[in-house]
# Entry
Amino acid sequence: MPIVFQKTRGLTDNETHYCPGCTHGIIHRLVGEVLEELGVLDQAIGVAPVGCSVLAYNYFNCDMHEAAHGRAPAVATGIKRVRPENIVFTYQGDGDLASIGTAEIVHAAHRSENITTIFVNNAIYGMTGGQMAPTSLPGQRTTTSPYGRDPKQVGFPIRIAEMLATIPGATYVERVAVDTPGNVRKAKAAIKRAFETQIKGEGFAIVEVLSTCPTNWGMDAPTALNWLRENMIPYYPIGKYRDPAEEE
Amino acid sequence: MAKVLMKGNEAIGAAAINAGCKYFFGYPITPQSELPEYMSRELPKHGGVFLQAESEVAAINMVYGAAGSGVRVMTSSSSPGIALKQEGISYIAGAELPCVIVNIVRGGPGLGGIQPAQSDYFQATRGGGNGDYRLIVYAPSNLQELVDFMQLAFHKADYYRNPVMVMGDGMIGQMMEPVEIKKMDEDNLPEKDWATTGTGGKRKPNIINSLYLAPDVLEDHNEHLERKYKTIEENEQRYENHQLEDAEVVIVAYGTTARIAKTAIENLEKKGIKAGMIRPITLWPFPEVAFKELDEKTKDLLVVEMSMGQMIDDVKIVNEGKRDVHFVGRSGGMIPTPQLIEDAVMKIVEGRK
# Structure
């Protein structure tokens, strides 16, 4: 029987450690498929973060480098400056990129490092057990905002795509979600565009992916997807924020 | 190459490029800024990359990435900047990557000052970062040693897959001396088959990593590192002995402080007092073998540092209580004079009478 569908070569056969219903698996697969479809998997070097996707180096089937918390864009800069012919990407969560690593991501964008960043925003610290993230929504209860996030005390959630879009060096900026099959397809298209931006040598590209954390949100998987759609997307509108094709 | 007159910070850059280092990631800080300036001017001429990072933290992580992809790479800074790099240094040591870190030391703690000091001895030899790790630390006392140790640092980093620090006080960075930049024989280096270069579809993915979640596996990793450090301790101790024979008092000093101590030893000789010196060249591994060669007549060790006394801890450890250990030093950017050292020796000798 002819094979009509199989797992992408962009991912290894290792079983992932992600919780049931977590959307990291979808996003991993999209990145793996894109690397394979663009024919760049064998020249790809990925940089894994600290957070839930800290073990991403076990899952992407390419050379990988595990970075310190928030430093992935700096590590990727070092790699890309040495090996401009390789395809270099970071895969980071919202604690990693939007809190401890804001300096590194802002300046990687500012220098327009020719790298691709996949930014997974699930509005919480997953790995450490559900603490408040800079991206947690107003009123959202977490283990360090047990009475709900109070913007008067800790500020409003940070909108990374909008912020980075103000930087001239941020060539391609798009926010997507993986809550529906349609949105998953759009997310894949955005990830592909982000890697194509690098292949063309056009500079820094980032895709912010709105993602779920059923475990730490305290929901089952379908409820988490609904919560993403009803709460995250209104605060974090999906769409393109910078696109060289539309600015020509 | 003939001898040329160079400033210390620039000589570091020239020696690094000569050693095949084409990548420099740094951040400006006094008193080492001539080095990134030199690299920004010279590296593009050699097909290399100079990048001024947004912070010392980012710079060391760029080094981490570049070292992981298999090239000779360096960064430089001064004391508070090196403090910021400790996170990255720990990761680099844990992931067993080669790189060279230059510290042109200034006074501390905190923002401290910008004048020469040796008060980062603990930071360099005890590790400011987390975990069980070690750096090889070279402490040159003149610019010829500085350029020689830069080449050696890259070589040893590659040989042991370990970060190496070259530590000079502010004087080393700022003074000018004639140097000859030589090329060393480097035939015995292993291939960097662990580097992230892209698989090319020809091998399994390489992973650069310092994370080991299973405690037994992390312990195995720590034991592997410890075996490497033991090998380094056995093979890489460097020091200079100066007039140890019949010395009543032996001074222990490194870097430019050792040069001042040599003048003090000459002056003491004229007064009929025999003093000698052990000059540690590697601060880690600390040259304990040097102390086994001491004359039986030597009853006192005088540690001289541009700090409130840090290396003295290592001297006490290797001394094993055999001799009296004394200290004299200046700090905050103040430089010890030969007279200060002479007076300290005289006090010890007179106290014995």
Summary: Chain A touches chain B at residues 12, 42-45, 47, 54-55, 57-58, 60-68, 71, 74-83, 86-87, 103-104, 106-107 (CB under 8 Å).
